[in-house]
Amino acid sequence: GLAILATSFLLLRMLAFFLARTQFPPGPCPLPILGNLLQLRFQLHPEKLSQLTRKYGSIFTVWLGSTPVVVLNGFQAVKDALVTHSEDFADRPVTPLFEDLFGDKGIISTSGHAWQQQRRFGLITLRALGMGKKVLEQRLQEEAQYLVEIFHRQNGTSFDPHVPIVRAAANVICALVFGHRFPHGDPFFQELMKAIDFGLAFVNTIWRRLYDAFPWLLRQLPGPHRKIFRYQEIVKSLICQEIERHKQRVPEDLEDFISCYLAQITKRKDDPASTFDEENLIQVIIDLFLGGTETTATTLRWALLYMIHHRDVQGEVQQELDTVLGPSRVISFKDRKLLPYTNAVLHEVQRFCSVISVGAVRKCGTATTVQGFPIQKGTIVLPNLASVLCDPEHWETPWQFNPGHFLDGEGNFVIHEAFLPFSAGHRVCLGELLAKVELFLVFAHLLREFRLRAPAGASTNERDYILWGTKQPRPYDICPLELGPRSPGLPSCLTPP
Ligand code: HEM
């Protein structure tokens, strides 16, 4: 009797599962419980997803366990969903881990009224600090100069630029939110970086996947997943110290994110619809670190790697920087208009490395239709941004590093409609402008100062990558040779052993 009951239950579950499938765009056949996880080798690899388009078209469904995820591939499908139906896809799905970590606070994992208020304020404040008052640009120039100093200090020896670049990107966020940078040895900064590094690494572990698959179990069990909550408490207490320091300051001093936010809390204190409070402030700061550190740092690491591989491109950038800026003029963001080739190279770096390949998941908030497929409310949607940045219908040489994608016949910079590394629509990256200023200033500062080479005998592959949250290059060493009259000759790392 029990066996018949169990078999019927199983059959009913399978029937429900296969009926559910018919409500989503067709895709590879899922297994019960595991869905397509085995086929995908437990990872949403951009190339694997692009391969599936050959069989199922630009919109298909994959099942991550029992969760259906509609994947959008290529420029047209992504544009149709995120731009044409922007409002319908403005929500973000929240996994159990993110729910336990962030609750309904901050920007990255919230939706609805709270998200709208926090995001709007974030955008306005970033614009005011960055473009209006220009305090941010000065701090970015300072940070770029610190990085130049670190490269100088290598004194001709080769080194892995990973750590200094990540620290520089984190210091940019420190400058934005706290109003100042930190020396790399500062205990506060070191603790903050340890926690951020741990958080970003944890996202890629099996423990994160297990937590999201079996939250009811993992919430009760001890294990390495507990550490993420401990690190979160450390980060929160570090941020609280900075908030307390800001409260002692003159209220008119609105030169960083915390001061602006504290003023906003006071301004809106009698508004019952206000979501401005210190808990939200802390989470927004964590979001700025999560969104703005690894992404920009990884893009810069790709940029330097591409320059090692494409010495002709590097040479042209340096020539343009020399001719337009000379060796000592302060570099500012508006200079990019005078530097069309350098600007095109940076855009091509972002296109070719597609740092956030398939990370920006959305949730359908209102039932809608994308390219003829009905999408139900609540469906999770995954735009494959890498497939947009390499869409053969939109890029002349999608698989080659080619700054010509962003130049017209006269050498003027031209933007391309399929350039969407920051995604698009209502939830487009909040830090797009800051990231662009940072990438430009750091890249121009480094290339004006150094000729970049791989150390003698080193072999690196610009197409090889590790999918570690962002799409990362494999670790590599770089040999910076000082340019101009300061350069005495070949540094030791370029001399064959
Ligand atoms: C969201 C890319 C730098 C803060 C995103 C998204 C992408 C992205 C693809 C997802 C958007 C979506 O849901 O469709 C990048 C890249 C960067 C970069 C490629 C650098 C090269 C930054 C910086 C900051 C930042 C510097 C901080 C100042 C955020 C935040 C969100 C976000 C807060 C969430 C927005 C929301 O959910 O409303 N970014 N980002 N990002 N980014 Fe960036």
Automatic annotation (TrEMBL):
Q: Which UniProt keywords apply?
A: Endoplasmic reticulum, Heme, Iron, Membrane, Metal-binding, Microsome, Monooxygenase, Oxidoreductase
Q: Which positions does UniProt annotate for heme binding?
A: C429
Entry EC number(s)? 1.14.14.1
Q: Name one GO biological process term.
A: xenobiotic metabolic process
Q: Which reaction does it catalyse?
A: an organic molecule + reduced [NADPH--hemoprotein reductase] + O2 = an alcohol + oxidized [NADPH--hemoprotein reductase] + H2O + H(+)
The organism sits in which domain of life?
A: Eukaryota
Q: What class of enzyme is it?
A: oxidoreductase
What Gene Ontology terms describe where this protein resides (cellular component)? cytoplasm; endoplasmic reticulum membrane
> Can you provide one Gene Ontology molecular function annotated for this UniProt record?
iron ion binding
- Reported cofactor(s): heme
Q: Where in the cell is it found?
A: Endoplasmic reticulum membrane; Microsome membrane
Major site of localization recorded for this protein: endoplasmic reticulum
Q: What does this protein do?
A: Cytochromes P450 are a group of heme-thiolate monooxygenases.
What the record says about family reads: Belongs to the cytochrome P450 family.
Q: What is this protein called?
A: Cytochrome P450
Organism per entry: Monodelphis domestica (Gray short-tailed opossum)
